């Protein structure tokens, strides 16, 4: 689970900005979850959090930074390709060609707390390290080291518990990505798989909108508890909607062949679900 996310010099973010799910003091007691870590320490975090602001204030870029960062971990670029994640702040010449920084604090395998960070620039990962807390002390799992005179290959140095083993990695790829294919390790491969299972939905992306509609429709149609909760939210928003009535349509019976292909291409499923809103009568 995500605890904290930091970025610097990425798109509209020139200075370092932090998005945190860690709970400090909050009056919303129902939104706080107490979690016992694998080292028996406790952490308090928020179940939900919201980002709000004016148009073009950077909300989408924060989500984009997180999703692109995770994609960079699980789908490494080919040798010598530019790093897509590198997209610095362009409106200040002093930082327009400087590294971009990313840091993620999360609860991962074995319920330990992890801190993973790296810097990128152009076609190169400049710094990278991963720490975790098997006890109250921060412990290094690996760090990255650039090879003097070699712009193509860097070295990943594992921590003391792994005898400071050294592995080679291309300059534009992450050390962590190595543990998803050619460097199997029980703990570090589990950390890699943690990111594979991340689900980030960017609602302004057309493809993700279609997948989101499909997923929500299935959940609402098949789960009465969720359906009632959605209805309660709509009522609380004063939409004058009193409930939901669902009808499942088979495209073969509703659309012609051309339209059916369009629907299948959009949602990649055999059925579509239509939600009919019932409004309260007002007198």
Automatic annotation (TrEMBL):
Q: Which domain of life is it from?
A: Bacteria
Domain ATPase AAA-type core, which positions? 50-150
Molecular-function GO term, any one: ATP hydrolysis activity
Spell out the InterPro entries in the cross-references: ATPase_AAA_core, P-loop_NTPase
Extract the Pfam families matched here.
Answer: AAA_21
What protein name does the entry list?
Answer: AAA family ATPase
Record the organism: Chitinophaga pinensis
């Amino acid at each position: 689970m995500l605890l904290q996310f930091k970025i610097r010099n990425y798109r509209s973010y020139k200075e370092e900005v932090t998005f945190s799910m860690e709970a400090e003091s909050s009056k919303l007691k129902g939104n706080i979850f107490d979690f016992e870590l694998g080292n028996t320490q406790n952490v308090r975090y928020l179940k939900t959090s919201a980002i709000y602001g004016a148009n073009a204030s950077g909300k989408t870029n924060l989500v984009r930074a997180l999703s692109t960062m995770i994609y960079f971990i699980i789908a490494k670029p080919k040798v010598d390709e530019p790093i897509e994640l590198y997209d610095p702040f362009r409106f200040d010449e002093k930082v327009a060609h400087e590294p971009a920084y990313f840091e993620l604090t999360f609860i991962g395998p074995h319920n330990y707390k992890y801190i993973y960070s790296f810097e990128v620039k152009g076609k190169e990962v400049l710094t990278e390290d991963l720490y975790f807390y098997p006890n109250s002390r921060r412990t290094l799992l690996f760090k990255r080291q650039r090879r003097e005179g070699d712009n193509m290959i860097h070295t990943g140095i594992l921590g003391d518990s792994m005898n400071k083993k050294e592995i080679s990695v291309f300059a534009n790829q992450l050390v962590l990505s190595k543990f998803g294919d050619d460097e199997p390790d029980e703990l570090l491969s589990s950390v890699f798989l943690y990111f594979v299972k991340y689900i980030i939905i960017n609602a302004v992306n057309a493809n993700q909108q279609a997948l989101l509609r499909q997923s929500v429709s299935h959940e609402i149609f098949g789960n009465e508890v969720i359906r009632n909760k959605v209805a309660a939210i709509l009522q609380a928003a004063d939409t004058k909607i009193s409930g939901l009535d669902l009808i499942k349509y088979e495209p073969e019976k509703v659309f012609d062949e051309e339209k059916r292909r369009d629907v299948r291409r959009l949602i990649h499923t055999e059925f579509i679900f239509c939600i009919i809103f019932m409004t309260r009568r007002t007198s």
